[in-house]
Amino acid sequence: MDQPCLPIEPAFPKPRRSRQAQTVWGSRIVTVGGDAPVRVQSMTNTDTVDAIGTAIQVKELAIAGSEMVRITVNTPEAAAQVPYIREQLDRMGIDVPLIGDFHYNGHRLLTDYPACAEALSKYRINPGNVGKGDKHDRQFGQMIEAAMRWNKPVRIGVNWGSLDQELLAGLMDTNSLRPEPWDARLVMYEALITSAIGSAQLAERMGMDGNQIILSCKVSGVQDLIAVYRELARRCDYALHLGLTEAGMGTKGTVASAVALGILLQEGIGDTIRVSLTPQPGEARTQEVVIASEILQSLGLRSFVPSVTACPGCGRTTSQTFQVLAKEIDDYLRAQMPVWRKKYPGVEKMKVAVMGCIVNGPGESKHADIGISLPGTGEAPAAPVFIDGQKALTLRGDNIAAEFHQIVENYIEKRFGQLAETA
């Protein structure tokens, strides 16, 4: 049966509806929520007492694209080093805001070490770890008072591995009285959301500006995260921090984070993200920043680095030339981005194609800003190059890779260098 021919609706992430917080250091203002871009953040795994080592890793994460970096503040010795970490970063010209991660003793550290409280740009508070019974509200209040005194935003971060056990027990008791009790997992969801929103409301009653409160409810399961954040976003309009806790390492952690965050971001949920990867032996901490950036870029929410399209290879591409060239180009573009962001505005949106044979090579190359279609097995040793959708020239011989590399550099200078001159 014939159906009316209607245009296919394009897919776009839904708009977000959260309030907007500001994380500040000096003249650097990183907005979170509202109409701000979804922000990328990360966390060091150095001993904060090692001020130099921590500052170096913060610098590496910032250069990789992390717009806020969290550091552990767990002891008096660590709190005492925070101002020196900030000083080292300022000397290196790294103005990325620092977030203090507090558990158990944050109320004392923020009170006893005012220089630490001042040097940090945001505090992470876990309401499950601020004290029990009568101490809970008092110690939570001390941290909120410090945030207001120093004009800092807070992230109230609930984690299902460290939930307020008194709150959870109360909800379990209530659940047992229901005619049809909920599954225990659903009660856990309710505890996470109740703890986060209830803590935010308590902070506001203490005088905290609600716009300066960011919430998170961390779990380690993909479907759990989706369920919790959908309901969290439905019940409140605080800015939301997304991320799986203990996502894992390697492929598992990458895929789980991409799936969970991708679904929520597409639904307009989430204002700042972190991919919590366990680094594999020898792997740089910056890998989690790269993956978080790729998630946002894949969804079309932001652009961080020129994208390289490359075919997966098949029986027509027994030569590894296109694989090597694709990796060389991708590595080169990423390495140059810290300089190019300032020198060539807009270059992060450029698309490069490195294809392996005649089947899809020319067509895919035409869709890119600049592309090359390398010869497949048995094809003539010629590689047409396409620039802005038009065939520009054909490369031949043994130096195709080097010549194309130079063509890419010339294209960037010609196209984006002109933009810099007129900016």
From TrEMBL:
Residue stretches making up the IspG C-terminal domain: 308-409
IspG TIM-barrel domain: residues covered: 30-291
UniProt entry tagged with the keyword Nucleotide-binding: no
Gene Ontology molecular function terms on file: 4-hydroxy-3-methylbut-2-en-1-yl diphosphate synthase activity (ferredoxin)
Signal peptide: none
Catalytic activity line of the entry: (2E)-4-hydroxy-3-methylbut-2-enyl diphosphate + oxidized [flavodoxin] + H2O + 2 H(+) = 2-C-methyl-D-erythritol 2,4-cyclic diphosphate + reduced [flavodoxin]
Pfam annotation, one family: GcpE_C
Cofactor(s) essential for the protein: [4Fe-4S] cluster
EC number: 1.17.7.3
Cofactor note: Binds 1 [4Fe-4S] cluster.
Keywords: 4Fe-4S, Iron, Iron-sulfur, Isoprene biosynthesis, Metal-binding, Oxidoreductase
Record keyword Nucleotidyltransferase present: no
InterPro entries referenced in this protein's UniProt entry, alphabetically: Dihydropteroate_synth-like_sf, IspG_bac, IspG_bac-typ, IspG_C, IspG_TIM, NO2/SO3_Rdtase_4Fe4S_sf
Pathway listed: Isoprenoid biosynthesis; isopentenyl diphosphate biosynthesis via DXP pathway; isopentenyl diphosphate from 1-deoxy-D-xylulose 5-phosphate: step 5/6
Binding site for [4Fe-4S] cluster: 311, 314, 357, 364
Family in the record: Belongs to the IspG family.
Function, in words: Converts 2C-methyl-D-erythritol 2,4-cyclodiphosphate (ME-2,4cPP) into 1-hydroxy-2-methyl-2-(E)-butenyl 4-diphosphate.
NCBIfam families: ispG_gcpE (TIGR00612), PRK00366.1 (NF001540)
The protein, known as: 4-hydroxy-3-methylbut-2-en-1-yl diphosphate synthase (flavodoxin)
